[in-house]
Amino acid sequence: MTRIKVITDPVDLVIIIHAVNTEEKKRVFQDLTTDWLTPTQIKKKYNEKGLEALYLLDKLKLVESRWQTNSENVSEKAYHTFFEAFQVNITTPIMDITDIMATISMPDKDFIKLEKKIEDYVGDTWKFYTDIAKDLNISKTMVKGISKRSTKLDVKGHKIGKIEPL
To answer: What sign results for the dihedral spanned by CA atoms 99, 103, 104, 107?
Structure first.
C-alpha cells in the first residue's frame, strides 16, 4: 500500500522543502526511505546534524517509529519514512505564497531572530497564531511557517507553543 502525503495547506510547503534543504537532511531522509534506523545509527553516520534532521523529520510527522532490539539486546526506537509520495494540491493568495517562500528561503540568522521572538512571546503556554501575528506585527502565514520550520515550536490547530526535543 502506497502512503501519500497530501498537501492542501500552503504553509505545509515549508515542511517539505525545509525537511531536505541541507545535504545532511537530504541524506538522512533518503536513508530512512530505504531502511529502519535508530538515533544511534544516524548519529554514528551523520553526527549531531543527523540527529537534528531526524528530530525535524519526526516533528514534521514525515517518519514513523517502532521499537527494535539492537545487538546488545537493548530496545531502541527506529525510524523510517512514513510516506512514499507527496501530492501537492493548493490554491493560495499571492501575499500568502510570498510569505511562504520568504520563510522557506530565509537565512538562518533571520529565521533564528524571528523564532526567538515567537518563542519569547508564547513562553510556556500555547497562544493563538493570530494573536502572535498581530502583537509581533508579522503575517499569520509567516508565523505559522516559522513555527513549522522550527524545531523549538509547533503548531496545533490554531495555537503555537514550545516543544521538547526527542
So the answer is: positive
Question: What are the phi and psi torsion angles at 93 (to 5°)?
Answer: -65, 150
Number of compact structural domains in the chain? 2
User: Contact 86/4 with Cβ under 8 angstroms?
Assistant: yes
User: Which CATH number covers residue 40?
Assistant: 1.10.10.10
* pTM across the whole model: 0.79
Task: Indicate whether 155 and 138 sit together in one domain.
Answer: yes
Residue 67 belongs to domain spanning: 4-88
The pLDDT tens digits for 20-66 are 888 999 999 999 999 999 999 999 999 999 998 998 899 888 999 99
Return d(Cα 36, Cα 153) in angstroms, integer. Answer: 26
